[in-house]
């Protein structure tokens, strides 16, 4: 039994169900599950997964959206002691193949008609697969009872590590390839403790996140907060500004996490009502928060926006709890240490800009695949750490004399769009693969409303149109990586 299920079991055992809804664990549109009901459903699903041959230590991918079945399956796998691997449902074929090769899944749960690493017949030989596909043998493909979800199981043993993973979240490495961040029990405990001590969530309360549960924002500020604190989790796989504004006004949310662009859209709604609770934590992360968005949101809802910094490798790092200065991400979460240091880890003076390093119980030290990165003298590679627990995040920032952190950019070409990482080099490479493109340069562009998008400038060797290039990228990249605009340069 892993920690996620222990959190559920402890809360379900301690929580006294009430007729007023204080015992609700999961809310999805018109569906409500109490803590007792959620545990009952999880236990049944665990028995079903066990009948599929899934055991402790097996790696199982969940390629779903933010729906109740994701939570039920993740908790069921946690009860079995299996490794939960949340995956982005919009992963491109190349990225999914790389993830699959790195993890050697025992099983993969997908939505109907979803892309899978190997769609051949049951028992097909690896020799029957295309040469560029992972060498896997499909054992079975079954429908999960009461759903349209498919669970494909594969022959062979899952990946074995020195660490004992409970959850593996995938992000991008500095080179733009998928990187699995291994979270053991101690990392999950550290993240849960940091969130509880800093956010001071009232219980019973509700937690809502507009990000997918496969992201750091969705998993940490959504699922982890809810389970660790016994708060109800409000889910919606099609969250838009109108629904979020209604949730904020009517549900009495304890935590609402979203990107600045979504908070800006909420603030522009003329019919939005002020939030009734002044203890709600409206947490903005994934993109820089501007004064204009923060002020517009406060004027509309009468509560501040809290600029936050978190990442998959570190968990929650810093938050501006007073909500008075959106250009800073504030002070560290409880139990988190931050320093600005050079590439070797030597601390720099207050006010100086440099690489941001983080140390906490939530910082991961194991990644898959275990790529051997080139070392330059005593320099620590981006996304890796010292033996003393400090991790070089790849972000650039500065600390003032009071310890408040301000982020200034990245050391590499990784940027965030809608809270998800994009490697600009990958976008450029995709554009340059088009026949009539000589070279391409991608960059991130922000607007005044807090939104971000990838735009590209292309040098042509022959006739092509922006639409052709955007369509080409859409066929090969995940939707959030596709350039919103393509410009042409001369010479």
What does this structure look like?
This protein is of the alpha/beta class and 491 residues long. The chain folds into 3 domains: 3-163, Rossmann fold (3-Layer(aba) Sandwich), CATH 3.40.50; 185-412, ANL, N-terminal domain (Rossmann fold, 3-Layer(aba) Sandwich), CATH 3.40.50; 415-489, GMP Synthetase, Chain A, domain 3. It contains 11 helices and 26 strands. The protein has helices spanning 3-14, 35-51, 68-80, 93-103, 185-199, 216-229, 241-250, 260-267, 291-301, 424-432, 466-476; strands at residues 24-28, 31-34, 59-63, 83-86, 107-110, 138-143, 150-154, 167-172, 178-183, 206-209, 232-235, 255-258, 281-284, 305-311, 315-319, 331-332, 337-340, 354-359, 367-368, 391-399, 405-410, 414-417, 420-423, 437-446, 452-460, 485-489. Strands 2-1-11-10-12-13-14-15-16 form a 9-stranded mixed β-sheet, sandwiched between helices. Helix 1 crosses helix 3 (68-80), helix 7 (241-250) packs across helix 8 and helix 8 (260-267) packs across helix 9. The longest helix has 17 residues, at 35-51. It starts with a helix and ends with a strand.
